[in-house]
Amino acid sequence: MHVEATTASPPSTHADTIAIGVFEGKGVAHELPGGELGALLESGEARRTFKHLAVAHAGGKRFVLVGLGAREAFDGERARIAAAIVHGRARELGTRTLCWELPHHVDDRVVAGLVEGTLLHAYRFARYRPAADERRLEALVVSAHHDVSDIVRRAGVLTRAQNRARDLGNTPANDLTPEDLAQYASRVAGVKVTVMDGEQIREAGMGAFAAVARGSATPPRLIRLEYGGADAPAPQLALVGKAVTFDSGGLALKSASTMHEMKFDMAGGAAVIEALAAIAELELPVRLLGLVGATENLPSGTAMRAGDIVTAQDGTTIEVNNPDAEGRLVLADCLCSAVRDDAAQIVDVATLTGGVVTALGSIYAGLFANDGAWADRVRRAGDQTGELVWPLPLHPEYAAMIKGRYAQLTNRSVRREATAVTAAEFLHHFAGAKPWAHLDIAGMAWDVPRPYFADKGATGFGVRLLVELAAGLGSAL
Fold it and tell me: For position 233, what pLDDT does the model report?
């Protein structure tokens, strides 16, 4: 979908449908010559209640009047929701070009939200289905009194990247192997990509990562993405993503009733790849390292067993108490690599634990960090983008729970409690003293009940947050 901004009035654009929002206690900002919009409000057909829709026709164009509710409550998230329901109605009307009249006196997050909500709602994963017989929106125009073109362009870049991450998540494991993901990443423009195969991973001493891959006939890949914007300073942010392209649980086999969802276990890796792609397209003045550990976790005669002891790249020995706690093994060696590359800050993104879903549901991702200032930065990036994260604790007593009986660490505590926290403490060991944050996105990666996720499946969560975080670092340096 083409996205653009204009300072022309909505009726003078090439749009066939115009969306106009109305706040509680307010009238229509720009009435039509015939008074059609005010008449809709007076009749009660249109209301100022949030999400209420009404349609009028005038001058050969359609006008969708949408209630925005209280002005003080209208933020980026409400803009995304309003845009989604307007897009749904516009599609029913056969709209080709939709123009949003930007409400007066709103901030940049609302501008971005209107673009994001429209493009996210318009997404459809139809790779394996005949195309639906429907007219698709071809263009979105945002009309404002002032120039919002930079904000609109950036929102378009980010949302297209997020939708690409959704494509990756929705693609089944037979068509998205670790090698397929590596080849995809290698085509990202503006980013230097190098790939390590299974033998190179083993030779590099990444015994934890290699152990996860042993059960699959499909070899693993460590995908390394490097980006350095113009005049970017030397300190670099490392983004680390878990990309288990299919997780059967290994020899700790998962329930058959939900195993089909385990193609989504690479959502963290998809977010990292597409965040790097968006950052490169936006040419942000930052230096970034992306590390994506891609593998399958399958049962076989060569699969890692409960009780096996493996050695990570930094020499840490790990007792494998549960072969289904594999993501932290992959991330352990990726974090070791980020530390060896002397990253200034690290963020890892992973669908890691069911425990975080129990704690936070599908509203917040879990945030764990070893540095308060870094945690605050990550949380603010989530608040700015609507990809919300909530801080959960680290503590020496939690760290003691993942000490091994026969090795230095165990990948799963024998105590069935605080599972999201102990998983984070396991990763904390490998991040060491580097400013590090772990995002457990298990509740946010697919089937999230938001109005703008009309097509169920992958959400692409984390792309907008990671780009915002990197952009904030660039502007601060």
Answer: 73
Q: Taking a C-beta distance cutoff of 8 angstroms, is the pair 194, 224 a contact?
A: yes
What average pLDDT does the segment 352-359 reach?
Answer: 98
CATH topology of domain 2-147: Leucine Aminopeptidase, subunit E; domain 1 (3.40.220)
Coil, helix or strand for 12?
helix
* Contacts of 214-217 spanning 24+ positions with Cβ under 8 A: 214/300, 214/302, 214/303, 214/304, 215/250, 215/251, 215/296, 215/297, 215/298, 215/299, 215/300, 215/302, 215/303, 215/304, 216/295, 216/296, 216/297, 216/298, 216/300, 217/300
pLDDT in tens, 293-331: 999 999 999 999 999 999 999 999 999 999 999 999 999
Q: What class is the 171-476 domain?
A: alpha beta
**Among candidates 106, 136, 100, which has minimal Cα distance to 121?**
136
- Which residues are CB-neighbours of 346 under 8 A, at least 6 positions away? 237, 238, 240, 335, 338, 339, 431, 434, 435, 436, 437
Residue 263 appears among annotated catalytic residues: no
CA distances, 283 to each of 32, 270, 336 (Å): 41, 20, 28
The pLDDT value recorded for residue 229 is 83
Residue spans of beta strands (DSSP E) within 161-277: 192-196, 221-228, 237-247
Band (pLDDT 50/70/90 cuts) for residue 476 is low
Residue 223 DSSP one-character state = E
254 as an active site residue: the answer is yes
Whole-number pLDDT of residue 477: 46
Q: Where are the domains of the chain?
A: 2-147, 171-476
Intrachain domains 2-147 and 171-476 with the same fold? no
Catalytic residue among 48, 62, 328, 464: 328
Tell me what the pLDDT averaged over the chain comes to: 96
Catalytic, out of 202, 254, 380, 403: 254
Q: Would you give the DSSP letter of residue 296?
A: E
Q: Express each pLDDT in 383-416 by its tens digit.
A: 999 999 999 999 999 999 999 999 999 999 999 8
Give the closest residue to 211 by CA, choosing from 318, 340, 315, 292. 318
